[in-house]
Design brief:
Layout: E1 13-17, E2 23-30, E3 34-40, E4 43-49, E5 57-63, E6 67-68, H1 72-79, E7 91-102, E8 105-114, E9 117-133, E10 139-151, E11 168-179
Antiparallel strand pairs: 1-4, 1-11, 2-3, 2-11, 3-6, 4-5, 5-7, 7-8, 8-9, 9-10, 10-11
Length: about 180
């Protein structure tokens, strides 16, 4: 394997996800003709950057009850036993198992646990860079964009074979994290 691409400003350390400047969003087809979108408003996580970026790790925990589609009645239904069943499964977690370079970008492999099911997923990721955050005492801050498409039925989310709701869910993550002092 060749050495990973050099990233300006890259440093090793433990970084805490900044939920105010990050976003975890989803989209899926509705009625097979249009996309419905939403996001999660409460999540936390950390990134541990290693000397070799390919040895780094990522963990994220999402509060499943923070799903926000822009329509309260739909959000309540998503939180119900029909879909997320947040009373029994309050969190969605991702734990990386490896990072690999692919075409100048990165793929973060890991396990996503949602509604009690743990499934391997791969996130196509772009490391956006590292720089000081002037609004936060110039602390080193990193940015990563990542996305994946998964099948909600792999996690027993929602009804099977539903013509109203697509089974493929696209997840798009914009992550900003601050280096712990």
């Amino acid at each position: 394997m060749s050495a990973p691409t050099k990233i300006p400003g890259y440093v090793t350390g433990t970084w805490t996800v900044d939920p105010i400047h990050s976003d975890v969003a989803y989209s899926l087809k509705h009625l097979g003709i249009a996309k419905t979108r939403g996001n999660f408003t409460a999540f936390s996580g950390s990134v541990v950057t290693a000397e070799n970026i390919l040895d780094s790790t990522v963990t994220v925990e999402i509060d499943a009850s923070s799903v926000a589609s822009g329509f309260g009645q739909r959000d309540d239904h998503i939180k119900s036993a029909d879909f997320f069943h947040v009373e029994e499964h309050p969190t969605i977690t991702f734990t990386s198992t490896g990072i690999r370079e692919e075409g100048g970008d990165y793929v973060i492999d890991g396990n996503l646990t949602w509604r009690g099911q743990s499934v391997p997923v791969s996130l196509n990721a772009e490391f956006n860079g590292v720089g000081p955050n002037p609004s936060h005492e110039n602390v080193a801050t990193l940015g990563v964009s990542a996305e994946t498409t998964l099948n909600r039925r792999d996690f027993n989310v929602g009804p099977e074979g539903n013509s109203f709701l697509g089974e493929k869910v696209k997840i798009v993550i914009e992550l900003q994290a601050a280096l712990n002092s």
